[in-house]
Structure formats: structure tokens, C-alpha cells
Design brief:
CATH architecture of the largest domain: 3-Layer(aba) Sandwich
CATH superfamily of the largest domain: Glycogen Phosphorylase B
Strand order of the largest sheet: 3-2-1-4-5-6-7
Number of helices: 14
Structural class: alpha/beta
Distance between the termini: 12 Å
CATH class of the largest domain: Alpha Beta
Shape: globular
Radius of gyration: 21 Å
Largest sheet: 7 strands, parallel
Strand content: 5-15%
Number of strands: 13
Amino acid sequence: MPTVLAYTSPAIGHLFPMVPLLLELKARGHDVHVRTLPRQVPMLTASGFHAGPVDGRILAIEATDYRAANAKAALASSVETFTARARFDAPDLEKAIAGVGPDLLLIDINAWGARIHAESSGLPWATFSPYTPPLQSRGTPPFGPGLAPMAGPLGRARDAVARRLVIGAVEKLMLPRINALRAGLSGGQLPLVSGADEFFRTAPLMLVTTSQPFEYPHPDWGPDVRMIGALGWEPPAEPPAWLRDTADPVVLVTTSSEYQADEAIVRAALAGLAAEPFTVVATLPAAETGSAGAARAPGTGGFGAIPSNARLEQFLPHGPLLERAAVAITHGGMGATQKALSRGVPVVVVPFGRDQHEVAARVVAADAGVRLNRKNLTPDSLRAAVREALTKTPGARRVAAGYAAAGGAAAGADALEDAISLRRPAL
């Protein structure tokens, strides 16, 4: 029985999309071990995995990129976070390997130290990206600002300038740190990398949880980067009892599971949709906690009186709500946005940072929803965006069909088995 060891960064938005793939591997007879957020270990154990927590020191290094003033500063902040965590996630993975003895490693794209140790371990390994990776591609704008694709010479010129100003500047900060980590964590075994693309493509296989038409075409990425479609998953839970008595269409409002001060979306939705024929359901999984689970003062959202057509919840399973939804309002997180689109529900995206500007650009390019700049976010502008998004259902359904055609968890498991020459156990 082949043994798989999966290692995630400390984020629900990275763990949950990986779970369908791990379940598929388990169903094929693989012995699956997971190292992830401590508070998710009991749930994973109940799901039949051998689960354990990542080093607690990793969780203490909180992502603060949401405080950045622009895309370049946000990317630089992420470099600081991931390089700081790498000092702990590399030896943490080494310890897990010693205890598990895996045949295959599946490593989160944001666990930079774990990636480096996986590469130097000599074991078969792959990387898992629950968001569009920041890889260059012809005809695609540079990752970060959320620029719309622009064809022709003018587009190529714009992208070249933007890439130099954004990615080039971040690489100057990133590369010395990455190469110092590669030298130190591998004992000098690994060669230096010359750019971000080379670093992210060190894995023999990268699985990416998206697909066309939501994602742009990337014919030059090659077969080692596999888009397998959206992998939406959430812990098993009963739908809320009150949902059965809700007659009006639902508007689901989501905020980030890693805290980024995006409660303004909820305030605007409560005020802007109070007189609309919807039940507004807002979930705030990180409103009272930081990205690593550190306690925050209660009441930080300052929502005041809740309108009669609205509900505020810290966490609810989104699936049953999306079955009743007319529109989803998201912060632009890949998981929340694709979860809605995979059910053919159009979205209003209000990006705050991280990869969210890129997600918003793809929503618009796929004609599957509306992008609303956070600087223009008001109750009136959000209400208008919801009304416009209601006309985007055909685009959302096209995206859903594209996700299904990509093959999902089964396609990902096939790629892992093919890449490392593991075969399904005989029945």
C-alpha cells in the first residue's frame, strides 16, 4: 500500500481544497497522512486520515499582506511571511517523513521550506496550488495587480513593463532569501534558482485547482502543470434548520478564512440589500480570529443592528446555501469564488489583496460576475453590482462546465500516480 504524506500551509483555504484529492487517493488504497492546522486534525482523523499538526511556531507567523498599500508591497509581505515560516516548516516536514516513511510527498505551494526539503529528500513529490500560481505565460498579465488580458503589441508592452515593476521588484527581495534557504536547508545540495518561475517549478508535478474558461489559456506551461478544476469541499454538517423556511433567493456573502479586515463587505451588503428580495447570509470565519487562530477582540466588525432579511454567522457550510443562491458576494478568495461558480452561481468580487485581484480579473474575463473595487464599495454600489451579477448566470454555468470537464480529484490522483509510477492496488 503506497503511503502519501501531505503537508499544508496553515490556512483552511489551502487544506479544504486538498481534501477531495486526499479522499480520492485514500479510496484508491493509498495510506494518506496529513500535517496541517491543529484545529483541523480531529476532523481529518474522523475522515480516515492519519493526521497531525504542523509546528506551532509556523502558525505564530501571521500573514499581514492585507495591510499593504499596493500589489508589489503585498507580494513583498508574502515573501516575508513564507520565508519566515520556512525556517520551521522544513524541519517539520523532515520530522514527519522520518515518522511516516512516505512513498510520495504532496506539498502546499506556500510551504516554501517544506518544498525545499521535499526537493532535497530524493522522494517523489508534487506541489499543490489551490490558487492560480504566479507563473509566467504568453498573453497573460503578470501576477498580482489583476490586470485584464490585452492582446497585440500594446498588451505585450504593457505586460512587460508591469512585470518589471511588480514581479521584478519582488524577485530582487525574494531570490536572495530563497537561495539562502535552498543552500541552508539542503546542506548545499540544491542549485540556486534564477527566478520565481524556476523556484515554483522545481516540483516534477504541480496540481492547480482551476481550469478554463475561468483560467486563461496557458499552452506554454507544459504537462508538469496540471489544471484539474475546482475542488470544493467543506466538513460534513447538517444544513441550518432555518434554511428550510427561507423562501427568498439567498445572497451569500463570504469573507476570508485568513483575517484581512474585509468586514466592510458585510457592512455594505447588510445595508445595501436590506430592502432587496433576498435573504442575505454572511459568514465571517476569521472575524474573531487571526489567520493562525489567535484570538481577536469580539465585535471588531461593528455591524450594528442586523436587517430582518439578513443573518450573520461565523461559519456555515456554503454548499446548502449556494443551492439556494442567486448571487454570491466574495472577497475574491479562490475557494469561495470557485465554490459558487462550480454551482453556476454568478459572483460579485470585492478583492482586498493576496491573489484576489487576479481572481476578480478572471471572473470578469469569463463573464461570470462583477468586479467591484474596494475603494468604491458602498451599499449603493454593491446593490448595483448584485443586480448586474444576476445577468451573468450563463457565464457562471460555462465556468462550472469547464471545472467538471477538467476531471477534479480523479484527474489529480491519476496525475500523481502517473508521475511517480504508483499504481492502484489490485482489487
